[in-house]
């Protein structure tokens, strides 16, 4: 698992550096407003001075009290404040997320998917990729809300079970419950966020949005959860460090006055945060391609298949003719003569006039090789 994750991270770094100018432009033009809104919203949501945060915190705490969570449960107290901060920050940054961040994800996905050397124009992203990722993002928000509700339901059932057996007053039992609740909640939330991030990539790569993209992401991530969590760790740790740096270097020294040095440092920190957001999308795209490649290999290994390479050559009369070889360049006898079966080939990759393809079905009759390409289908008897 670690070897696979490190390989994907290396490929992500290599791709990020190879297309640095495109990604840097995307970070500066599209991601920067989102990063600035996130950092400023966190700075503004001070529990001691923000009346909006205090109101939301009081409402969430009343919900937890009505659900029967004991006031001495430490994890519930910490979760109340964190949920209030997350809710307020989400609402404050929602306009930027639904516009700039979605456009940035669509741009990065198009660069990776189409192998573009420059960011595509925004008007080419709106009809398909942008709308697919937008609908997926909205459904993912509901998915995250459902995951939180599930975690709270588990905590509610566990807390009431302790109350029934008479352990709700035990400090040791509440301490164990807090630790277990923190672990379970972290696992549920981490898996949900990883699946939602992958769903955005699926929506952009396959032009499908909404619940379909989330379902495909959950199927792709099955059996690869540890790898996905490991891949999400570097960028998220980096963003957490940048958020702490912003609090230490900007918020701590801000006393109502604005000078040029503070503004320049804040812009630099927000730009670093933007680069980390772009790198996280790149890593998710590379992971998606790795999952698709693994699924293709599994379908390849399921049953009797073989690989052959075909080269278009000219015969004596100058007409094009297929020359087929196995991967070790051994000619296939009788390839250009009608054998006793038909074998449809699925094109895997091309390099010049050489094609790498595989059989996808066998029928009785004669040999017909179907080459699927951007120019259409070429049937060669």
The tally of beta strands, per DSSP, is 6
How much strand content do the residues show? 5-15%
Whole-number average pLDDT? 76
Outline type: globular
Query: How much is the radius of gyration in Å?
Result: 27 Å
* Unreliable residue runs: 296-312, 325-381
Question: Could you give the distance between the termini?
Answer: 45 Å
Quaternary structure state of the chains depicted:
single chain
Order of helices and strands: HHHHHHHHHEEEEEE
Largest sheet: 4 strands, antiparallel
Query: Helicity range of the residues?
Result: 55-70%
Strand order of the largest sheet: 2-1-4-3
Count of alpha and pi helical runs: 9
Q: Structural class of the secondary elements?
A: alpha+beta
Transmembrane segments: 20-40, 89-112, 124-145, 225-246, 258-279
Keywords: Membrane, Transmembrane, Transmembrane helix
Tell me what you see in this structure.
With 381 residues, the protein is α+β, with helices and mostly antiparallel strands. The protein is built from nine helices and six strands, in the order αααααααααββββββ. It has a four-stranded antiparallel beta sheet, with no helix packed on it. Helix 2 packs antiparallel against helix 4. The protein is globular. 29% of the residues are buried.
């Amino acid at each position: 698992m670690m070897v696979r994750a490190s390989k994907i991270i290396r490929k992500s770094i290599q791709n990020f550096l190879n297309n640095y100018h495109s990604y840097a432009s995307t970070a500066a033009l599209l991601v920067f407003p989102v990063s600035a809104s996130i950092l400023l919203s966190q700075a503004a949501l001070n529990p001691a001075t923000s009346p909006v945060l205090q109101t939301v915190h009081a409402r969430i705490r009343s919900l937890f009290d009505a659900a029967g969570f004991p006031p001495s449960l430490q994890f519930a107290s910490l979760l109340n404040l964190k949920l209030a901060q997350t809710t307020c920050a989400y609402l404050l940054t929602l306009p930027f997320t639904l516009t700039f961040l979605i456009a940035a994800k669509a741009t990065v996905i198009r660069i990776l998917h189409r192998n573009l050397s420059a960011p595509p124009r925004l008007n080419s992203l709106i009809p398909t990729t942008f709308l697919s990722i937008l609908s997926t993002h909205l459904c993912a928000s509901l998915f995250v809300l459902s995951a939180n509700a599930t975690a709270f339901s588990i905590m509610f059932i566990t807390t009431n079970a302790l109350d029934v057996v008479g352990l709700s007053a035990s400090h040791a039992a509440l301490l164990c419950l807090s630790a277990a609740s923190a672990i379970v909640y972290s696992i549920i939330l981490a898996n949900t966020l990883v699946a939602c991030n992958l769903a955005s990539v699926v929506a952009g790569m396959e032009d499908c949005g909404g619940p379909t993209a989330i379902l495909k992401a959950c199927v792709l991530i099955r059996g690869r959860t540890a790898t996905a969590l490991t891949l999400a760790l570097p960028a998220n740790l980096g963003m957490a460090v940048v958020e702490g740096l912003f609090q230490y270097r900007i918020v701590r020294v801000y006393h109502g006055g604005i000078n040029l040095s503070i503004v320049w440092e804040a812009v630099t920190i927000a730009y670093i945060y933007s680069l980390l957001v772009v790198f996280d999308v790149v890593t998710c795209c590379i992971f998606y391609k790795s999952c698709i490649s693994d699924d293709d290999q599994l379908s390849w290994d399921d049953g009797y298949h073989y690989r052959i390479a075909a080269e278009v050559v000219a015969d004596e009369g100058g007409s094009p003719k297929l020359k087929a070889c196995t991967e070790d360049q051994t000619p296939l006898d009788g390839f250009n003569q009608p054998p006793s079966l038909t074998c449809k080939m699925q094109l895997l990759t091309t390099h010049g006039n050489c094609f790498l393809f595989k059989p996808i079905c066998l029928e009785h009759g004669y040999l017909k090789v179907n080459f699927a390409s951007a120019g259409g289908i070429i049937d060669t008897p």
